[in-house]
Design brief:
Blueprint lengths: L8 H29 L3 H12 L4 E3 H8 L3 H13 L3 E6 L2 E9 L1 H21 L6 H19 L13
Antiparallel strand pairs: 1-3, 2-3
Helix pairs in contact: 1-5, 2-5, 3-4
InterPro entries: HTH_MarR-typ (IPR000835), MarR/SlyA-like (IPR039422), WH-like_DNA-bd_sf (IPR036388), WH_DNA-bd_sf (IPR036390)
GO molecular function, one term: DNA-binding transcription factor activity
Protein name: MarR family transcriptional regulator
Length: about 160
């Protein structure tokens, strides 16, 4: 391995800062979410994505793609949430292989109750500590990195299909 492959001092500092930021936010916001609403971050992500969708429903693959999750991960999460009555899975008429995931009344109620507390947590642990320029930089960096995973050859795929 040549020195060209190593991170520069600036790159290393950015990477370590990102790792620390992610660890702190995952811990604090996840803890708040669980105590405020008894939802996991994955539960919240699914419910929020479905609640933003037309009629509170999406095909399983659309749901996963929207969250940058593999189909397998999405299906497992949906199964857990279905057992708790937060979502319902139905078939797509005319396509026996497609599944449609729908927000139930219990799921809609859970996201309505959790959202204000979750936003307050995000503000308390991140937003309120940053300047407008820092918020813009985070948004721009996120968009730049995620764009390549939304489509094309680097799109998020199931591990099973990568072999």
């Amino acid at each position: 391995m040549t020195d060209d492959n190593w991170l520069s001092e600036r790159e290393g500092k950015a990477w370590r800062g990102f790792l620390a930021l992610r660890a702190v936010l995952d811990l604090q916001i996840g803890r708040d979410l669980a105590s405020d609403s008894e939802l996991s971050e994955a539960d919240y992500h699914v419910l929020a994505t479905l609640s933003a969708a037309e009629q509170g429903r999406l095909r399983l693959t659309e749901l996963g793609n929207g969250m940058l999750w593999s189909t397998s991960r999405t299906a497992h999460q949906v199964s857990r949430m279905q057992r708790r009555g937060l979502v319902r899975k139905t078939g797509l008429p005319g396509n026996s292989r497609a599944a449609v995931i729908m927000l139930t009344e219990a799921g809609a109620s859970a996201i309505r109750a959790a959202a204000p507390l979750h936003v307050a947590s995000v503000r308390r642990h991140l937003i309120d500590h940053l300047t407008v320029d820092q918020l813009d930089a985070i948004a721009e960096a996120g968009e730049a990195v995620v764009a390549r995973y939304r489509s094309g050859p680097d799109r998020v795929r199931d591990r099973e299909s990568e072999g």
